[in-house]
Amino acid sequence: MAAFIIKEYQAFPSNFRSTGTLADYLTQNNILGIEDLDTRALTRHLRKSGAMRAVISTKDLNPESLVAKAKAIPSMEGSDLVGYVTCQNALLLEGQPAGCCGCKPSDRTGCLAEPGEKALGCGP
Questions:
Q1: Is 72 helix (H, G, I), strand (E, B) or coil?
Q2: Which pLDDT belongs to residue 72?
Q3: On the chain, which terminus has fewer CB atoms closer than 10 Å, C or N?
Q4: Which of 47, 28, 42, 34 is nearest to 5 (CA)?
Q5: How many CA atoms lie within 13 A of 84 on its CB side?
Q6: What's the predicted TM-score (pTM) here?
Q7: Angle at the Cα of 56 (from 3 to 123), degrees rounded to 5?
């Protein structure tokens, strides 16, 4: 992962299985985090315009330099990126939240395995 972009950072983990904060994970793995970005608007833009090369920097603030760096990134056209974003192992969850289903708390339909039911989630 090169960067992590979120709308709103929560400093306190809410999952009982968590072993630390998101900030701790990003720091330990030298991953840049960006907060307070309209991720829905970003998603709409990417869906409309297609994949784009980009550079995020906290050190190099020169627009011309950043554009040159972005242009130097190989095109993603034809790339198979599924292996980079897919979990390594599937977990069988029984009566637990399916952790990687992308559900919103207000719309949990299909996101939980009820007692006696099974769902797939992502594992390490």
A1: helix
A2: 95
A3: C
A4: 34
A5: 6
A6: 0.57
A7: 10
